[in-house]
Design a protein that fits this description.
Blueprint lengths: L7 H20 L8 H9 L1 H23 L7 H27 L2 H8 L1
Helix pairs in contact: 3-4
Length: 113
Protein backbone atom coordinates (compact mmCIF):
# COMPACT_ATOMS: atom_id res chain seq x y z
CA UNK A 1 0.00 0.00 0.00
CA UNK A 2 1.37 3.39 -0.97
CA UNK A 3 0.78 6.22 1.48
CA UNK A 4 -0.29 9.53 -0.01
CA UNK A 5 2.17 11.43 2.18
CA UNK A 6 5.09 9.79 0.44
CA UNK A 7 3.99 10.63 -3.08
CA UNK A 8 6.46 12.94 -4.78
CA UNK A 9 3.91 15.71 -5.39
CA UNK A 10 3.04 15.94 -1.71
CA UNK A 11 6.69 15.89 -0.65
CA UNK A 12 7.45 18.72 -3.10
CA UNK A 13 4.60 20.76 -1.63
CA UNK A 14 5.91 20.19 1.90
CA UNK A 15 9.43 21.17 0.84
CA UNK A 16 8.10 24.23 -0.95
CA UNK A 17 6.17 25.30 2.13
CA UNK A 18 9.09 24.73 4.49
CA UNK A 19 12.06 25.92 2.43
CA UNK A 20 10.72 28.73 0.24
CA UNK A 21 11.14 31.56 2.80
CA UNK A 22 14.78 30.63 3.39
CA UNK A 23 15.56 30.51 -0.31
CA UNK A 24 13.76 33.78 -0.99
CA UNK A 25 15.77 35.48 1.73
CA UNK A 26 19.00 34.34 0.10
CA UNK A 27 18.03 35.11 -3.49
CA UNK A 28 19.37 38.67 -3.36
CA UNK A 29 22.84 37.26 -2.63
CA UNK A 30 22.84 34.67 -5.43
CA UNK A 31 24.44 36.93 -8.03
CA UNK A 32 26.68 38.85 -5.65
CA UNK A 33 27.57 36.79 -2.55
CA UNK A 34 29.76 38.27 0.19
CA UNK A 35 33.47 37.92 -0.42
CA UNK A 36 35.68 35.95 1.97
CA UNK A 37 37.38 39.26 2.83
CA UNK A 38 34.09 40.91 3.81
CA UNK A 39 33.14 37.89 5.92
CA UNK A 40 36.49 38.04 7.71
CA UNK A 41 35.99 41.76 8.23
CA UNK A 42 32.55 41.21 9.73
CA UNK A 43 33.86 38.51 12.06
CA UNK A 44 36.66 40.76 13.27
CA UNK A 45 34.39 43.75 14.04
CA UNK A 46 34.12 44.71 17.70
CA UNK A 47 30.32 44.39 17.76
CA UNK A 48 30.42 40.89 16.29
CA UNK A 49 33.03 39.81 18.83
CA UNK A 50 30.96 41.33 21.64
CA UNK A 51 27.78 39.57 20.48
CA UNK A 52 29.68 36.28 20.26
CA UNK A 53 31.10 36.78 23.77
CA UNK A 54 27.58 37.43 25.13
CA UNK A 55 26.29 34.20 23.60
CA UNK A 56 29.24 32.21 24.95
CA UNK A 57 28.68 33.67 28.43
CA UNK A 58 24.98 32.74 28.29
CA UNK A 59 25.91 29.22 27.15
CA UNK A 60 28.32 28.82 30.07
CA UNK A 61 25.75 30.22 32.51
CA UNK A 62 23.20 27.60 31.42
CA UNK A 63 25.79 24.85 31.99
CA UNK A 64 26.63 26.20 35.46
CA UNK A 65 22.94 26.51 36.34
CA UNK A 66 22.38 22.93 35.24
CA UNK A 67 25.19 21.66 37.46
CA UNK A 68 24.00 23.73 40.43
CA UNK A 69 20.51 22.24 40.20
CA UNK A 70 18.69 25.43 39.22
CA UNK A 71 16.42 23.47 36.89
CA UNK A 72 15.29 21.06 39.62
CA UNK A 73 11.69 21.30 40.83
CA UNK A 74 9.50 19.37 43.24
CA UNK A 75 8.20 17.10 40.48
CA UNK A 76 10.09 15.03 37.98
CA UNK A 77 7.86 16.38 35.18
CA UNK A 78 8.70 19.96 36.12
CA UNK A 79 12.40 19.15 36.25
CA UNK A 80 12.21 17.44 32.86
CA UNK A 81 10.44 20.45 31.33
CA UNK A 82 12.90 23.00 32.73
CA UNK A 83 15.87 20.84 31.80
CA UNK A 84 14.53 20.29 28.28
CA UNK A 85 14.01 24.02 27.81
CA UNK A 86 17.56 24.76 29.03
CA UNK A 87 19.04 22.09 26.76
CA UNK A 88 17.11 23.46 23.79
CA UNK A 89 18.28 27.00 24.49
CA UNK A 90 21.89 25.90 24.91
CA UNK A 91 21.77 23.93 21.66
CA UNK A 92 20.43 26.98 19.82
CA UNK A 93 23.16 29.16 21.32
CA UNK A 94 25.80 26.60 20.38
CA UNK A 95 24.50 26.45 16.81
CA UNK A 96 24.64 30.24 16.41
CA UNK A 97 28.09 30.42 18.03
CA UNK A 98 29.39 27.76 15.64
CA UNK A 99 27.73 29.46 12.68
CA UNK A 100 29.47 32.75 13.46
CA UNK A 101 32.82 31.09 14.16
CA UNK A 102 32.65 29.01 10.96
CA UNK A 103 31.14 31.78 8.82
CA UNK A 104 33.19 32.14 5.66
CA UNK A 105 35.50 29.20 6.36
CA UNK A 106 33.79 27.02 3.74
CA UNK A 107 34.55 29.57 1.06
CA UNK A 108 38.20 29.63 2.05
CA UNK A 109 38.34 25.84 1.80
CA UNK A 110 36.66 25.94 -1.63
CA UNK A 111 39.12 28.58 -2.85
CA UNK A 112 42.09 26.49 -1.67
CA UNK A 113 40.99 23.48 -3.76
Amino acid sequence: MKWKFWEKEVIREVQKTVYTPIHEALLEFKENPPTPESLKGWKSERNTKYFLALMKAEFEEIKEDMVSGLYTTESSDGTAQLTGKAIGKSEQLRDVIELIEDFGNEREEENER
